[in-house]
C-alpha cells in the first residue's frame, strides 16, 4: 500500500470553525463534530484494512503528499482553501501522524450537490528532498527555525548576529 484514500465529510468553513466563549476562542460544535467524524472514519479504515499499521509506521517521519478534492454543493459559495487546515489536523490527529511532514498539497474544487465531501489521498514521498540550497541539520534545529519563522528571530529583539 503506497497511498491511503478516504472520503471525509465536508469540513466546516473557516468562518464556522471557532466560537468565542468568554475571552477564549474554541472549536465550534460543527468543528468538533467534524473531528469526531474523521476519527470514526479512520477507525473504520483500520478495521476494514483500508488503513494498516505498517503504512502508518512507514509514514512516520517521512515526507508526505496530500491530494484533497473538495466536493461542494455550489461552485462559488466557499473558498477552496477554507477547510484545509481542519481537514488535515483532524485526519493526522486520528492517524497519530504529524502533519508537519506534508510537503506537497494538491487542492481541487468539484461540485456534487447531492453528496458534499472531501476526498483525501495521502502518499509517501521517500525520495523527496528540500531545495539543494538548504540543508536540514537535525531536529534540534526545528525549534530555532520555528521561532524565526514566527517572528522571534534576532532582528525582532534588537540583537545583532555576529560572524
List its traits:
alpha+beta; 60s Ribosomal Protein L30, Chain: A; 4-stranded mixed beta sheet; two-stranded antiparallel ribbon; 4 helices
List the helices and strands and how they pair.
Layout: E1 3-8, E2 18-21, E3 24-27, H1 29-48, H2 53-59, E4 64-72, H3 84-95, E5 102-111, E6 117-124, H4 141-149
Parallel strand pairs: 4-5
Antiparallel strand pairs: 1-6, 2-3, 4-6
Helix pairs in contact: 1-3
Give a written overview of the molecule.
29% of the residues lie in helices and 25% in strands. The protein is an alpha+beta fold and 163 residues long. Helix 1 crosses helix 3. The radius of gyration is 19 Å and the shape is globular. Mean pLDDT is 86; it is low at 152-163.
In short:
This protein is an alpha+beta fold and 163 residues long. The chain contains four helices and six strands. Helix 1 crosses helix 3 (84-95).
Poorly predicted residue ranges: 152-163
Number of domains: 1
Order of helices and strands: EEEHHEHEEH
CATH class: Alpha Beta
Net shape: globular
Mean pLDDT: 86
| Fraction in helix | 25-40%
In whole angstroms, the N-to-C terminal distance is 49 Å
Mind telling me the C-alpha Rg?
19 Å
Query: Could you tell me the strand content as a percent range?
Result: 25-35%
- How many extended strands? 6
Instruction: Tell me the strand order in the biggest sheet.
Output: 1-6-4-5
Main pleated sheet: 4 strands, mixed
Amino acid at each position: 500500500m503506497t497511498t491511503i484514500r478516504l472520503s471525509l465529510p465536508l469540513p466546516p468553513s473557516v468562518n464556522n470553525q471557532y466560537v468565542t466563549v468568554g475571552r477564549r476562542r474554541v472549536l465550534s460544535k460543527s468543528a468538533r463534530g467534524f473531528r469526531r467524524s474523521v476519527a470514526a472514519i479512520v477507525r473504520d479504515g483500520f478495521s476494514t484494512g483500508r488503513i494498516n499499521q505498517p503504512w502508518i509506521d512507514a509514514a512516520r517521519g517521512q515526507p508526505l503528499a496530500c491530494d484533497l478534492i473538495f466536493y461542494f454543493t455550489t461552485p462559488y459559495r466557499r473558498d477552496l482553501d477554507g477547510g484545509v487546515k481542519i481537514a488535515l489536523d483532524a485526519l493526522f490527529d486520528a492517524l497519530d501522524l504529524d502533519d508537519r511532514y506534508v510537503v506537497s498539497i494538491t487542492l481541487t474544487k468539484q461540485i456534487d450537490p447531492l453528496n458534499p465531501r472531501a476526498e483525501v489521498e495521502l502518499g509517501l514521498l521517500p525520495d523527496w528532498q528540500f531545495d539543494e540550497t538548504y540543508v536540514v541539520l537535525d531536529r534540534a534545529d526545528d525549534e530555532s527555525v520555528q521561532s524565526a519563522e514566527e517572528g522571534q528571530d534576532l532582528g525582532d529583539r534588537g540583537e545583532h548576529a555576529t560572524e
